[in-house]
Amino acid sequence: MAFSTARTAFRFTCFSLTLLPLSPLYAASPAPVQGDNGMVVTAQHLATDVGVDVLKHGGNAVDAAVAVGYALAVVYPTAGNIGGGGFMTLRLKDGTTDFIDFREKAPLAATKNMYLDDKGNVVPRASLDGYLAVGVPGTVKGLELAREKYGTKDREDLLAPAIQLAKDGFTLNQGDASILAGGAARLVKDPEAKKIFLKADGAPYGAGEVLKQPDLAKVLESISAKGPDAFYKGMPAEAIAKASEAGKGILSVEDFHTYAARELKPVECDYHGYHIISSPPPSSGGVIICEILNILEAYPLREQGYGAASTVSEMVEAMRYAYVDRNSALGDPDFIQNPLSKMLSKDYADEIRAKITPGEAGKSADLKPFGGKESTETTHYSIIDKDGNAVSVTYTLNGSFGAGVVAPGTGILLNNEMDDFTSKPGVANLYGLVQGEANAIAPKKAPLSSMSPTIVTKDGKPFMVIGSPGGSRIITITLEAILNVVDFGMNISEAVNAPRIHHQWQPDKVYYEPCALSPDTIAKLKDMGYTLDGGVGGPVWGQAAGILVGGKSLADIVDGKGHGYYGAIDSRAVAGSAKGY
Ligand code: DON
């Protein structure tokens, strides 16, 4: 879904580019939303309202993030969840940084070759559909850990809006309805999911109709009253384990009893005086964003400009080298040694740059592993409060509506995160990622992620909160939003809306959105030896949610023209909104 929605709207956006008289506007975009006291940007407008309400009633950004996390589980079932997992990057007003990892983990009965047949071939869709695809969910533990450590509000206060939205229902707008319609073919296959998300005749709900989720409301009420044990040691764990057994899965109640969220040290790096705080393994996101930024720092991107063939070539080469490292070297830190100090060092970036010939396409096949299709759903939200506490959250069911299954009586859509593991070295997953042994399946291991909830600071103060869904492209979407602000002078709305490019080592192609590359640039890149894939009529990807502090663009911040916070939701997010107060 995040791959192709809003294509029409977006095409209109890039056609109108030609009408713009002056730089630095590179993309026609809605004006950023301004707020003096706080800003919430999410992919679903009612969840945004929930977050703003918490801030208005004295909650801090973490309180708002917890309430939004539960609200999205109700109003954004394609990705919002309590049956999945994710990451929260925090940077508090006193400069403290933290990272809460509530990523799903492989069940205790998982084995390295569980998705292979007896000939050693990957069984198509075994890691994507049904109970065998489900990792042990982490969201409830993660949100509670964040609330207990950094929140100021009671759990009951933060769950109340989600409970109300599930119990009383909410009226679908056009965007909400189109997302549900997009999942209908998948949801109809599971009797419980069908009962909840489709009408009695199997048709999807339309705009103006009300979606109620009474079973989910009851589960949320029990979590509100009793905390995470209500989920991990109560009815949901038992019902999911039972349905899993009946559905040829391997989840057990023991998996739920032993799940724990963890706090990790965020990955941090510097780029042109900006300080990046982002996701560490088991995400590849922060490491790869930093590796790419380190390589790019020595190139004159600002002078060359957005979309110039030289800029694209340098970005693609940096992405190529960083993604081969991603796919071969990284994995769950409880299981493997991640070579972070090397991958994050400026010396290593220098080494890589020395191998790049700007203006000449490298060859992915020539790159050695370290030391040796897109779509679907996830969701990102960005929040900042009046004190400057910033929270960046990306969480997911992996594919759109996850594994497409709901255990009877729970109302909880379950993830298909097991597909993020390496089912077999050398065989691509849902996102075309060709990964290695470092990300092999093992009991209680978290699959390698690309989710990159990121906070950027400047001179010790929050500057930008950013992230996106988009599978393997999350990393380049987040990276490009930062470059668009820092190097290309875009305001926050332009930065999240501007057409994107992507390269991930394999397949050895430059993917580009409609209008990302001009005909002249395309011709130059082809001359340089690049294989291109995209353009008008092709897909768009990602749904970035961004906040800038102190101005709508870097120029305004420097000139002191802005005040407070400026937020923007990607126009590719059809149901989303940015709201300040
Ligand atoms: O963790 C990851 O990298 C993936 N499970 C994210 C999936 C995703 O972004 C799907 N949405 N577009």
UniProtKB/TrEMBL annotation:
GO terms for molecular function: glutathione hydrolase activity; leukotriene C4 gamma-glutamyl transferase activity. The active site is at residue 378. GO terms for biological process: glutathione biosynthetic process; glutathione catabolic process. It catalyses: an N-terminal (5-L-glutamyl)-[peptide] + an alpha-amino acid = 5-L-glutamyl amino acid + an N-terminal L-alpha-aminoacyl-[peptide]; glutathione + H2O = L-cysteinylglycine + L-glutamate; an S-substituted glutathione + H2O = an S-substituted L-cysteinylglycine + L-glutamate. It comes from the Bacteria. Keywords: Acyltransferase, Glutathione biosynthesis, Hydrolase, Signal, Transferase, Zymogen. Its EC number is 2.3.2.2, 3.4.19.13. L-glutamate binds at residues 103, 396-398, 420, 449-450, 471. Residues 1-27 form the signal peptide. SUPFAM superfamilies: N-terminal nucleophile aminohydrolases (Ntn hydrolases) (SSF56235). Coiled coil: none annotated. Cleaved by autocatalysis into a large and a small subunit. Pathway: Sulfur metabolism; glutathione metabolism. Belongs to the gamma-glutamyltransferase family. This enzyme consists of two polypeptide chains, which are synthesized in precursor form from a single polypeptide. This is Glutathione hydrolase proenzyme. It comes from Allorhizobium terrae. The gene is ggt.
